[in-house]
Amino acid sequence: MIWFIIIVIVMTLWFYGRSYQKKRLRQQNYLRDYIFPMALDRKLRERYPNLNNEQIALVFRALYDYFRICQFANGQMVAMPSQVVDDVWHDFILFTRLYQLFCQQALGRFLHHTPTEAMNSPTLANQGIKRAWRLSCHLENIDAKAPEKLPLLFAIDGLLDIENGFKYDLNCQANSGNYCASDIGCSSGCSGDSGGCSGDSSDSSGDSGCGGGCGGGGD
């Protein structure tokens, strides 16, 4: 009888595990194939008339990256580190029904918007930014603690010279007035955080791998 109960429990766990993985795969495929509304392109060009076609495409790539790391975060809050990407995200939300459907299909929940968020100071990273940093680095196979480049979400405002954008430096001795990326990467300690994600980061939670606190998007 005991063995029968154990077998039932194991089979139930296996079934739910398989169902979860299939759901995650459907969400990832939906996001991968998703085409953002052309109206967002028009609104972006109106707001930033100096951006060329290649730069516009880069912004939408960064928006895709943000939603991808929100999938990784598995319902936890993720900061939005870019002003220009935040602008497009905000415009997307205004298409209420379309955005609601997108969130349900890509994330399995409605992703609420809060104001774009940088660091508490040029050298003090909050937990929402730390999560965004770790997951962005994981997405691009960058060492979060010793990065050789900035992930796109953290680089794009500087690359496009966005007025009042959030700009980050790898070289924190540059005295440029930009935010210090190495501090986000836990060079000064991360409350026991490992600073990166191993395995399937979509399953990560808490502060042991992909954890953090508050940020731009979440339940």
Entry keywords:
two-stranded antiparallel ribbon; globular; 2 domains; 51% helix; 219 residues; 4 strands; mainly alpha; two-stranded parallel sheet; 8 helices
Give the tally of structural domains.
Answer: 2
Mean of residue pLDDT values: 79
Strand order of the largest sheet: 1-4
Q: Which regions are unreliable across 5 or more consecutive residues at pLDDT < 50?
A: 187-215
Question: What general outline do the C-alpha atoms trace?
Answer: globular
Q: Topology as H/E string?
A: HHHHHEHHEEHE
Helical percentage: 40-55%
Structural class: mainly alpha
Main sheet attributes: strand count, strand direction, barrel closure: 2 strands, antiparallel
Oligomer: single chain
Q: What's the β-strand tally? A: 4
Question: Overview of this structure, please?
Answer:
The protein is mostly helical and 219 residues long. The protein has 2 domains: 1-33; 36-218, no CATH class. 51% of the residues lie in helices and 4% in strands. The chain is built from 8 helices and 4 strands, in the order αααααβααββαβ. It has helices at residues 2-33, 38-47, 53-73, 83-93, 96-107, 127-139, 152-159, 181-184, and strands spanning 112-113, 168-169, 179-180, 217-218. The strands form 2 sheets. Strands 1-4 form a two-stranded antiparallel sheet. A two-stranded parallel sheet has the order 2-3. Helix 3 (53-73) crosses helix 4. Residues 187-215 have low confidence and may be disordered.
